[in-house]
Write a structure and sequence with these properties.
Blueprint (H helix, E strand, L loop, with lengths): L1 H4 L8 E2 L5 E2 L2 E4 L12 E3 L3 H4 L3 H6 L4 E4 L9 H16 L3 E3 L5 E4 L4 E4 L7 E8 L2 H14 L3 E6 L8 H10 L5 E6 L5 H12 L4 E5 L4 H11 L6 H11 L2 E3 L2 H13 L8 E5 L2 H13 L9 H8 L12 E2 L6 H13 L5 E5 L4 H15 L5 H29 L3 E4 L10 E2 L8 E4 L2 H19 L1
């Protein structure tokens, strides 16, 4: 139903031995009854019946199978035996299997959403492959909400035939893939993975989360996908040498994919910070230092220019505390002063975006108390703030294209309209704003580390 509801434009055929109709569509009793050629068979029948399906698929000349069915290597010795026998017969029939035990695949570029969870992110350039279907579809849902475009998704399942190593070699040649995101529990061919990752990493960033880092996690992975535990120290060493950005939490995967796919890489580690509140500036400084970034002192030239914009009691330091200044033009001007400063490689702005939400709640309280309050004024004020925030994001993207330095923000407040990524028409970069300082700093720090690896 997800394939149909997602408006896939290709032909879809239902097959079940009972025949009949499902949701008004004809059901074939066998794939051999279908007169048209078939590119992909999506199989959901019980595990003990899959092997018998291979001759039918061979007769129909179907070469590709997405095997959703579980009950193979992940359940123990008998399941592993069934999986090995299935692979043997599939190879003999010239059939390639993705899975078994997978949540499915998605390719938003052709409106193909073949997953059990009905999420449909927009087309983009982030490739997502996970050895956990549920984690993968959770990340797809996050991408859909946050405006992160997806090149394609695959839950690789038990990887009986198609493995992470195969996928990695595909990423290398796929022109639409700009960022690679992986959730890995085990690797079947470490040398092949390492060599492919080194090649891919020189062209596009690879962001990975390793599952099974602890003994308990490794045991869970074995019962989940039949994965054999890999040495975590060895895996970390491989990541360092191959330039893979290794993260600790699932949400880090898409935070970093948002940053890498939307911002220019920083050329250095010096960060300029502009904040609507002093406390945030202190926290951001600590986070930068803890993540191997620097917060340099402002030059006299920059200080003198900002002196013309802020009251004399501003802090004259980096982070630049806006001391509650609400003039939106001043915010934009100070941001540009920082990004064009030669002593700065990246800029973080905090509290400038998201003020609309705070002011809306204040105005709603005011209207509730004062029945004579002009609703048109409230709506007009909120529309003004919406327009400012749109213009501010557009300005940050324009500045990134001009100076080739990343600018990332932190929302003051967030609501159901809040998005990590904001597209700007006609621009190669995009606005990126996170809901916490630590997510923003971590993204810039990882981008800097990757840029240093590229330099060798």
């Amino acid at each position: 139903s997800n394939v149909l509801a997602g408006k896939y434009q290709g032909k879809v055929y239902f097959v079940n031995p009972k025949g009949g109709e499902i949701i008004g569509r004809h059901v074939f009793k066998s794939v051999t009854e279908i007169s048209d050629p078939v590119d992909l068979a999506v199989v959901t029948i019980p595990a003990n019946k899959v092997l018998a399906l291979i001759p039918e698929l061979k007769a129909k000349k179907i070469k590709n199978v997405l095997l959703i069915t579980s009950g193979f290597a992940e359940v123990g010795a008998e399941g592993k035996r069934m999986e090995e026998e299935l692979v043997k017969h599939a190879r003999e029939a010239g059939i390639i299997i993705l899975g078994p035990n997978t949540m499915g695949i998605s390719n938003p570029h052709i409106s193909l959403y073949c997953t059990g969870t009905h999420v449909r992110p927009k087309p983009g350039d982030t490739m997502l492959v996970t050895q956990s279907g549920n984690l993968g579809t959770q990340l797809l849902a996050f991408a859909e909400k946050e405006g992160i475009g997806i090149r394609a998704f695959a839950g690789s399942g038990n990887e009986a035939m198609i493995t992470i190593e195969d996928a990695m070699e595909g990423f290398e040649v796929d022109q639409l893939t700009k960022t690679v995101v992986l959730y890995i529990e085990s690797i079947k061919n470490g040398r092949r993975f390492f060599e492919a990752a080194k090649r891919v990493g020189k062209k596009k960033p690879i962001i990975a989360l390793k599952g099974g880092r602890t003994e308990a996690g490794a045991q869970a992975a074995a019962s989940h996908t039949g994965a054999m535990a890999s040495n975590v120290k060895v895996f970390k060493a491989v990541c360092r040498q191959a330039g893979i950005i290794l993260v600790d939490h699932p949400m880090d995967l898409l935070d970093l994919s948002a940053a890498f796919s939307s911002l220019p890489l920083p050329k250095g580690k010096r960060v300029g910070i502009v904040t609507l509140g002093g406390g945030w500036g202190v926290v951001a400084c600590d986070l930068c230092m803890e993540n191997s970034l620097e917060v340099p002192q402002l030059s006299e030239t920059v200080i003198n220019r900002i002196n013309n914009l802020l009251p004399g009691f501003w802090n004259h330091a980096n982070p630049v505390d806006l001391v509650g200044e609400m003039n939106t033009e001043i915010h934009m001007t100070i941001l540009e002063e920082l990004i064009q400063w030669e002593g700065c490689d990246a800029v973080i702005h905090m509290g400038i975006i998201g003020r609309r939400i705070m002011i809306q709640s204040v105005m709603e309280s005011t209207v509730a108390l004062d029945k004579n309050y002009d609703n048109n004024f409230v709506e007009g004020a909120l529309a003004y703030l919406d327009n400012f925030e749109k213009q501010f994001v557009e300005r940050t993207v324009t500045l990134m294209e001009k100076y080739e330095k990343p600018i990332a923000g932190v929302y003051l407040l967030n609501d159901n309209k809040t998005r990590t990524i904001t597209e700007v028409e006609g621009c190669k970069y995009r606005g990126v704003n996170f809901i916490t300082p630590e997510r923003t700093v971590k993204a810039l720090a990882q981008m800097y580390q990757y840029a240093q690896w590229l330099k060798g």
